[in-house]
Amino acid sequence: MGRAAVPLVVACVILVGATWVTPQSLPQVRAAEPRRPDVVLIMTDDQRAGTLSHMPQLQRRVIRRGIRFRSAYAPNSTCCPSRVSFYTGTYSHTNGVWGNGGLFGGFQAYDDSSNLATWLNGLGYRTGLFGKYLNGYRDLSIVPPGWDEWFGFSGGDGRTYYGFEASENGQPVDFPDDVYSTVETYKRVVDFIRSTPESRPLFAVWTPVAPHRPFVSEERYADARIDISPWRPPNYNERDVSDKPKWVRRQDRLAGRDRKVIDAERIAQYRTLLSVDDGVGRIVRALKREGRLRRTLLVFASDNGLMWGEHRLRKKAVPYDGASKIPMIVRYDRLVRGPRRGSDVSSNVLNIDVAPTVMDLVGATPGSPVDGRSLRPLLGGSAPRVRTRFIIEHHQTQVPAYCGARTRNELFVRYSTGEEEYYRLDEDRWALHNLAGKGGWGSEVRKLRNYARDRCDPAPPGFTW
Q1: Distance, CA of 112 to chain centre
Q2: Which residues of the chain have pLDDT under 50?
Q3: Architecture of the domain spanning 9-387
């Protein structure tokens, strides 16, 4: 696994860190480009879909000028696996990163020799990452291959708002308690944009820890007014879970104190996003000042969501929408024009689609196989969808390992316990009525089970059909 930071050297083979990479694993240029697009990826941490209302900079500078994907998902709704999927365009069963740590997860489980950073760097891009990388990144002398500028938080566990430690191009740096990490990192992104030669394309990744627990806002936003109503959808603190799998039935109903905590945490999450919104504004303005904005592919997304009491749950890593559905917006002025600016797209899209979309728009093929699909047809309006169904998967953590399938209106899950769930989301949006095993739905369940069995390959550790 490549780990050291060294320049790329091209000969009969290419040395990336300590990993020998054959020419076939490099991105293949399809056609000459007059000017490759700059690429900026902004990835928040545990931000649910539908939490953009208090982000006016994002609304004005990205959403109104881009495409918002209303049905974007993380097939493995956990931080580290999702981030690897963003960088590689692959499912967990392809890249082998199933969780945040342990034998099958975290930084140590990830072969980082082929991903967006190495592919774009190999095409001449100046690359930089600023913020959280992967859970388990702790040896701060390591700069993963492909990055020209590196500012990665220690640990990557989300607890890095104030008083944090980071690797600055392989040198550990401690920051005092009066430096807020979201602000520090977006300033570094702005400096990276300003310092990149005009003749060189750039790839910047900004990964603030907001709104991850412990939800620490910037001091000036500590008492900011967040005008939201308590979250009480029909499946909140679900009363009857007798049709749910055993792991859900074990969850106690939320007591009054628990409900108050969730309400307070939601407000705290929104407050952390105020600083993220400031950063979005600063980054977009820097791109405009440097004359780069019109050719920049800008992607805003989250790694996964977080349950707010639905089905009695307050976690991620579960197959339900609160954890697996994510915000995703793309602004690319070269392609998203006229009436398409500011529009919504309902097609199912995934985090694994980001890497192939980037490579498609820069005019090259990825340096290794991907599972995702380019979103170019959706951005340009030439197709209404890129897929009709996809798989979801997770290895055992606080939840039994599972494989499943999702369509626009259906959710199927099979657990390592043999239990199954099937919901008709067009009629049961909040997944209240599990139809698995109920009369009349056998063919639909069987179809999705077979689909998941064929594509969850290999299956998550601990899972057997």
Answers
A1: 17
A2: 1-24
A3: 3-Layer(aba) Sandwich (3.40)
